[in-house]
Amino acid sequence: MNTPTPTRAGRAAPMSPDERRASILAATVPLLLERGRDVTTRELAAAAGVAEGTLFRVFADKQELVRAAVAQVLDPAELLAELAELAATAGSSTLHAVLVRAVTVLQVRGQRITSIFVVAHQVLASEPGRPGGAPAVAPHGHGHGHDRPHPMDLIADAMAAVFAPHAAEVRRSPQDCARFLTAIVMATIRPGVPSSAVPLTPEEVVDLLLDGLRARTEEN
């Protein structure tokens, strides 16, 4: 009777290739944002808890790793999940309160995207023999063909679901309101600007959308 060879006590099971890749990327993104163009592959490997050689068995070179990190940040899955969670409880909050939370989520994501693009451009342009330029990835998420909805459309649909429980409180459809709000938020995000310098706070964005700029009078 053959018995399986016991694993050494206390030793973690080896990661699958996909798990190893995900683990490396999870460590790469925050280090890229912190160290910028000065980050080294040795630092990236140490942050991921692997040897530098292991890093290059998963990714062909530093350029491929940086591009993969950008693609991960652009993946809208996490944002869509957060907006879906907000939509599920939107009916139990005021419209203003739920929109402030939604705008906060959108601004944090937007700042992360612009920051990773700036850093990636710096890192890739500084690589010997590498031409400068923006990372070759889709601007709003993973590559999408004609048979896939654009990530921005998915985000707009998710925002419309946040508006839906309060549809009677606004003059336009939830879809229109989501489009307006997303456009305003995108305008508050500038490449390279730290989150503390965002020109409009979430509260200001929501006030602008819901109340506009005109003073309230009996005529209007």
What does this structure look like?
There is one protein chain. The chain has 220 residues and is mainly alpha-helical. Helices cover 59% and strands 0% of the residues. The chain has nine helices and no strands. The chain has helices at residues 17-35, 41-48, 52-58, 62-74, 77-89, 95-126, 151-163, 174-187, 202-211. The protein is elongated, with a radius of gyration of 22 Å. The mean pLDDT is 83.
Query: What structural category characterises the helix and strand content?
Result: mainly alpha
Mean pLDDT, as a whole number? 83
Strand content range: under 5%
Low-confidence stretches: none
Number of strands: 0
Q: Could you give a short account of the major beta sheet?
A: none
- Total helical segments: 9
Radius of gyration based on Cα positions:
22 Å
C-alpha geometry: elongated
C-alpha end-to-end distance: 87 Å
The H/E string reads HHHHHHHHH
The percent of residues in helical segments reads 55-70%
Set down the secondary structure blueprint.
Layout: H1 17-35, H2 41-48, H3 52-58, H4 62-74, H5 77-89, H6 95-126, H7 151-163, H8 174-187, H9 202-211
